[in-house]
Amino acid sequence: MPQVRIIARNFMDMVAALPAMKLDHLYQNAFICEAILRSLPPLAKKYVIQMCYIEETIPSKSLEEWVLPDGLSKHRVAIDRLLQLRIFSESFDRSTGTSYRLNPTFQENLQKLITYGAVLPREPMPSSVTARLPSLQELENYAMQKWECFLLQLINSAQAEKMTNISPSMMRIFQRGLLTQRDKEAPRLTESGFQFLLMDTNAQLWYIIREYISNSEEIGVDPADLISFMLELSFHETGQAYNMNTLDEIQRSTIKDLADLGLVKLQQGRKESWFIPTKLATNLSVSLTDSSSRKEGYVMVETNFRLYAYSTSKLHSEILRLFSRVEYQLPNLLVGAITKESLYNAFENGITSEQIISFLQQNAHPRIAERTPSVPENVMDQIRLWETDLNRIEMTPAHFYDEFPSRDVFEAACDFARESGGLLWEDSKKMRLVVNTEVHLQMREHLRRQK
Amino acid sequence: MASAPSKLYADDVSLLVVLLDTNPFFWSSSPLPFSKFISHVLAFLNTTLRLHQLNQVVVIATGYNCCDYIYDSSSATNQSSGTGMMPAFCSNLLEKLDKFVTRDEQLEKGGQEGGIASSLLSGSLSMALCYIQRIFRSGPLHPHPRILCLHGSPDGPEQYVAIMNAIFSAQRSMVPIDSCYIGAQNSAFLQQASYITGGVYLKPQILDGLFQYLSTVYATDLHSRGSLQLPKSVGVDFRASCFCHKRTIDMGYICSVCLSIFCMHHKKCSTCGSVFGQAQSDVASTSNKRKTPDT
């Protein structure tokens, strides 16, 4: 799914956009080094590992010698990324050309990580203190429930049965960009809001986290601290209890917000309180590269465009309503149909056919998911056809020329436009022509020269 | 039987099966002490695990008398934290390795004659392939598997058939066998294994820098190999072992029915039982040269 990548990359861009000082500071934490290492493109990972123990600069030529002609573009992407994140520093020498060196802080931490392993700043609490911890299954249910509750509230505050504790102002920040509200009307989802709903959980999570971090920047919390805390959190072990006393003031208030999102579960003992990271939290650093954690799907699509969703979740039914006509709703089953009208409705809201199809594929019921394709081909084709029906007109910015002094000038202008590949339309009788905007400036120069 | 995987994780998620040579006869005479070797390897394994959360490492010890799994990162409980002295998985692995070596020693009957005895490469290769087959069948999503042989003992010609069978089965399931040979002479078996399966064969020149070799060449995931130029072996020793005396031979006799190889003329093939005609003259019939593996 393309959106996932965009969001993930945006997050790393956020890291890359930090000032140099902050970045160097971030790299002092071994866990962040590891998370960043994992987020790199495969080739970049290889370069970092290869240079991990080399403390001198490496000429870029000797790196390029390894690359096959086919891999050059990937090589460049990898190097750019490394430079952007300041993992590589570039230097130029007249005799050897460009050469690279690993960021010393990053390198040192990586070496430590490889030889000694890394130690979390806090140990899991002994079971004698925490008594009975929730099982992994319970924890996952808890996380999913919290997250769905949050999403429901996000898209439709009236629908949610249980309100989360997230402050309305925070909620409004999350809704920014996803919802629009005209005066006195009920808020409506925007284009990106619809797209957001069709993403998978990890991608949604990163979107929210990103909003959260950029918001906290506005109220004066250092984004670097938050980023490092989030990444560190993802290396904690799911289902273990960690003492709240190990957190500082900012982290403690952050973790309360995270608990509302379902990333951690807070528990109170007799004397102490602790937090238990859920799968959502530990998956944070995975989803930076790809969304590989899969949930069990629930949707079946038949060749007759009928759609069955075995789900009790209100959120699921809300999502399916985005692009299908719901016919029956039973306690654990929702029957709908994908119709032309329902799809047009979705397209109007800015959802694309590819998003719908990938949503259906990703959430396919396990029985269906075994088959290829998991969504019947005729349904996929029809969804795409209906979308292209709406896109018959193509818009090109252009400039219109007329009132040419003579036919010669007109024809010369036509030829010029044709040669530069910008001629869109000509009418030789009335001496009028339309030229692509990109060619407009050259065209003007050309006409001026004619005079 | 198509074993080519249909759905995979993200491109660079790998399953690395490492075959660790623990042959005491080899290590007692090796210029690189085993403790140093193992510290290089542990660092390398740790690196592989750090590169991707879903990366998986399995270590199989290749002993003199037996082989066994000594580490599997998918069954280890704790991944990230350690004691501060070394990554958590290492102590686990070392403990298992220690037990394995003791057991391997107990199985030793004595009576080792001349030269360094070979270790059971065929056994550990088969175990690695079994493990990979199980991963292939475990579900729709699985990592890209590859095998890395860290080997030092000389080839055991008596294992020729078993090893070749393992190699061909790896080739069929598209599992590359990388080999890093630490011993004195090149290993013909491993050269052939890497050549046939599309892996990398390398004999490090400077053993003290083993980690650099491992991280530069063998840490490359299968996806990145598509765009990189990894070391290619210059020449591959394709010599086969004969089935009758397990000797490595340059020229020999090949059964025209089952392609079994013999170092001398027999009346009947010991593998398939075909009766051979009388050789016309000893000189003429040695024209059957070495057997080159197809594809």
UniProtKB/TrEMBL annotation, chain A:
Main location: nucleus
Domain Transcription factor Tfb2 C-terminal: 381-448
GO cellular component: transcription factor TFIIH core complex; transcription factor TFIIH holo complex
One Pfam family linked to the record: Tfb2
Keywords: DNA damage, DNA repair, Nucleus, Transcription, Transcription regulation
Subcellular location: Nucleus
One GO MF term attached to the UniProt entry: ATPase activator activity
A GO biological-process term: nucleotide-excision repair
Stored InterPro entries: Tfb2_C, TFIIH_p52/Tfb2
Alphabetized Gene3D superfamilies for the sequence: 3.30.70.2610
Function of the molecule: Component of the general transcription and DNA repair factor IIH (TFIIH) core complex which is involved in general and transcription-coupled nucleotide excision repair (NER) of damaged DNA.
Family recorded in the similarity comment: Belongs to the TFB2 family.
Protein name (record): RNA polymerase II transcription factor B subunit 2
Species in which this protein is naturally found: Punica granatum (Pomegranate)
Automatic annotation (TrEMBL), chain B:
Location(s) in or outside the cell: Nucleus
Keyword vocabulary terms for this entry: DNA damage, DNA repair, Metal-binding, Nucleus, Transcription, Transcription regulation, Zinc, Zinc-finger
Lineage top rank: taxon: Eukaryota
Main location: nucleus
DNA repair in keyword set: yes
GO cellular component: transcription factor TFIIH core complex; transcription factor TFIIH holo complex
GO molecular function, one term: zinc ion binding
UniProt-listed GO biological process terms: nucleotide-excision repair; regulation of DNA-templated transcription
Pfam hit, one: Tfb4
Role played: Component of the general transcription and DNA repair factor IIH (TFIIH) core complex, which is involved in general and transcription-coupled nucleotide excision repair (NER) of damaged DNA and, when complexed to CAK, in RNA transcription by RNA polymerase II. In NER, TFIIH acts by opening DNA around the lesion to allow the excision of the damaged oligonucleotide and its replacement by a new DNA fragment. In transcription, TFIIH has an essential role in transcription initiation.
Quaternary assembly: Component of the 7-subunit TFIIH core complex composed of XPB, XPD, TFB1/GTF2H1, GTF2H2/P44, TFB4/GTF2H3, TFB2/GTF2H4 and TFB5/GTF2H5, which is active in NER. The core complex associates with the 3-subunit CDK-activating kinase (CAK) module composed of CYCH1/cyclin H1, CDKD and MAT1/At4g30820 to form the 10-subunit holoenzyme (holo-TFIIH) active in transcription.
Family: Belongs to the TFB4 family.
Identification of the protein by name: General transcription and DNA repair factor IIH subunit TFB4
Organism: Punica granatum
Name of encoding gene: LOC116203031
